[in-house]
Amino acid sequence: MSIHATARTAAYLGVDVGTSSTKAVLVSPGGEVLGLRTRQHRVHRGPGGIAEMPMEVWWEDFRTLTAGLLSEQPVRVRAIGVSGMGPCVGVTDLDDVPLAPAALYGVDQRARGEIREMTERIGRDRLLAQRDSLLTTQAGGPKLAWFRARHPEAFEAGVRCWMPAGWMVRRLTGEYVLDRHSASQMTPLYDPATGQWDLEMLEATAPGAQLPRLGWSAQIAGHTRRLQDLPELAPGIPVIHGSIDAWAEQESVGAVEPGQLLLMYGTTLFLIANANQRVRHPAMWGTTGTRPGTHNLAGGLATSGALTDWLREITGESGYEALVAEAGAVPPGSGGLLSLPYFAGERTPIQDPDARGMLAGLTLSHTRGHLYRSLLEGTAFAVRHNIEVMETAGAHIGEVTCAGGGVASDLWPQIVSDVTGRAQLLRRDTVGAAYGDAFMAARAVGEAGELEEWNPVERVIEPRPTPVYDELYAAFRELYRVTADLQHRLAALQD
Q1: Torsion sign (Cα): 207, 213, 215, 219
Q2: Rounded Cα distance, 481 and 264, in Å
Q3: What are the Carbohydrate kinase FGGY N-terminal domain coordinates in residue numbering (predicted)?
Q4: CB-based contact 125:319 (threshold 8 Å)
Q5: How far apart are CA 266 and CA 21, in angstroms?
Q6: Residue 154 is part of which domain span?
């Protein structure tokens, strides 16, 4: 939705750097979308499980999108919110010159050797008890150690560590900051008991790294400077610390209270369960929340929307409309076709970077509609698996809210509701993390109403009784167990 704006119209700017694109949005004080722009970019994937992106892309996207929005909508920007995929690890020297492209979140598997070494040195029990998470490819600390092993001279001279939100805040304000939620995913460098960096752990992990000042996501980090490469943006505008995209998406749909669960449908699928106390499980990620006194148990699939994009590309489609229509015409169960969505390894709850995707039960009668639906059903089975593990850990899950690009069509969230047996709330605006950034920015300057006023619930996706999904879910769990060794052997050949 978009409305006409004038130079006297107040607005909040939200910008989110995602895995596949960056999105910028201008939002009115009442929560109406005044303008929206998106810029595509690509992730570079290389040997050894590398998934990376030049840090320069983050600011160039911000600059280009913001300039375009402000040329279309000559508003008075009251505050700025930022977020990005994460936890990423970008490293620069003390002049803010990047040493290399930034390592992405759990899809980047470069630091597996460091994960093993650090886990052995620190101990699994200590990590889980003191940090609420074990070391996996999602953790930022081992990736920082990986960079130090390859750039020792730079670390001896001193380096800084960045995520997308912190990098944009730096370019906008000159401040070197990070929000506490993002810091809690730099395991084992952040102590959730104190809400501060553990400097002894830093010295043992990556000596020479200078870590940023910490704050809360919706806390003002600084104010805009006069920017020569972005003259459209006035100086003196408050800029918040921001956060990781999934947590900004939480804010965009109000899924931040204890007992609430966010399902974020994107290139990867992310789950965040909220609690008012620390919750931990060895297969999941325990984190600090975006707000004081909040904690999360989080999980994530390594691929979800990336699977449908893969099928779209190899079948020569420029869009998704035909594939969605064909998959929607296929009955639940995809004609006995079962997929494991582990095409880039898997994160939670199996934490297996050497897992590989499978399509089991193929026959000559299966069409691409069956394939597409089966991939969606595979991600839904993975969501159910994650929810079951979260509840085993003591996370209470009552209300479920969905968000992200994958809810543009009813097909995917309906399949997830049918597989999990849980209703999902769908709010009016599904712009995503950038909208949450704008909401947090408005809160930071005391100008936001309740989220219900900004973004009311539009409808509820109710689960439908689908007995075949219970049978297929049991097969889904068994298929990984009986083929894991074979998957690992194939992964070794691919490496």
Answers
A1: negative
A2: 27
A3: 12-246
A4: no
A5: 11
A6: 9-241
